[in-house]
C-alpha cells in the first residue's frame, strides 16, 4: 500500500507539473497576441529560453536555497520513493519559471535578449527561492514570528504572493528602469496606441493559462490524499468572477475580457483551499476590477509602459489575493478559518518589499553595466529582425 501511495503521489504531482508547464505556452501566446507583429517571434523565443535557463538554475541553486535539497547525489537516491522529490522539483520549477515569464510581458518590445537571461538566472536562482523558502519552508523563523505576532502564520496555498505578486512587483522595477517604448508617450502629451497584433492568439494564450491553472492550484496539495475539490471550484468561481468584472469594467474590450479570468485566478491562489465558493467569486470580481482600473490608470495617466499589464495583473491582484485570504478565509465569511488578516498583511508586505528591492537591484545593476534596452533603431525594426533575424511570417513579407 505504501508503494502504491508513493507511485500515486508521484503521478499526481507529475500531472500538475505538466499542466503548469503547458501554462508557459499560454504566457507565450498571450504575449505574442499582445505585442506588435515585429516582436512576435521574440515573445515565443523568450518564454522557451527563459524556462530552460530557469530549469538549470533552479536545479543547481534555487531549489536548494528554498528547500535545502541538493541533487548532487547518486541516481539511486534520486529515484527513491518513485522519484517523488525529483517530480516535486519539476512541479515547483514550473512555479519558479513563471516569474521571468511574467516579467517578459512587462518589458516586451524594447528589452535586450541576453541581459534578460542574466536577470532570469539571478531571480530564479536567488531572489524568488529566498522568499519561497520563507513562505513555504519555515526559513529564518519568519512564519513563527508572524504567528506569534498575529496568531496565525502567513497562508499562501498556491502562490498569489509567493509567485504572482513577487513576479509582478519585480516586473514593475524592470519596466520603470527600461522606460516606455519609443513614441508611446509623445512630448505634446498624446499617447500613441499600440493595439494587440492578434486577438485570437491573445485569447488562445488566456485559455491555455486558464486551463493549466487548475493544475497550478489543485495540485499544490502535492500529495493525492490532500487533494480538495474546494480548491477546484473556488478557482472556477474566481475565474468567472474576474471575467465578468473585466467585461463590465472594460466595456467589452476583448483584451480586458481575456485577462479577467487570469486576474481572478491570480487572486484566488492563496486562499483557494479555505474560502467558500461565493467568497472566491467576490475575490475574482474585485481582482477583475482592479486589473481593468489599474491597467488603464498606469497606461494612460501614470504613463508606465507595462505592455501586458503584468504589474496590475500579477503584482496588484496577487497582493489582493494575499489580503483577501485573511478576509474570505475566515469562518465569519464562510471560510475554513486558520488565518488572520494581520498575518496576511504582514506576509504579503514582506513579499512585496522583497520583490521591489530585488527587481530594482537586479535590473539596476544590469542597466548600469550591460544595458537593458535595444537602441532606438533596433526597437523601430523590431526585436524579431534585430535579435532573431527573422519575422513571424517572412514568406508573406517577401511576396508583398
Keyword list:
400 residues; mainly alpha; 73% helix; globular
How would you summarize the topology of this molecule?
Blueprint: H1 2-34, H2 40-67, H3 75-78, H4 80-96, H5 98-106, H6 113-137, H7 142-150, H8 160-178, H9 199-218, H10 229-249, H11 254-268, H12 277-301, H13 310-328, H14 341-369, H15 376-381, H16 383-388, H17 394-399
Helix pairs in contact: 1-2, 1-4, 1-5, 1-9, 2-4, 2-5, 2-6, 5-8, 6-8, 6-14, 7-14, 8-13, 8-14, 9-10, 9-11, 10-11, 10-12, 11-12, 11-13, 12-13, 13-14
General description of the model:
The chain is 73% helix and 0% strand. It has 400 residues and is mainly α. The N and C termini lie far apart (66 Å). The relative contact order is 0.16. The model has no long low-confidence stretch (mean pLDDT 95).
Computed CA radius of gyration, to the nearest angstrom:
21 Å
Mean of pLDDT: 95
Query: In what range is the share of β-strand residues?
Result: under 5%
- Estimated helix fraction: over 70%
Silhouette: globular
Describe the sheet with the most strands. none
- The secondary-structure class comes to mainly alpha
Contiguous low-pLDDT stretches (5 residues minimum) are none
How many beta strands in the DSSP annotation?
0
Task: Enumerate how many helices there are, as a single number.
Answer: 17
Termini distance? Answer: 66 Å
**N-to-C SSE string, H for helix and E for strand:** HHHHHHHHHHHHHHHHH
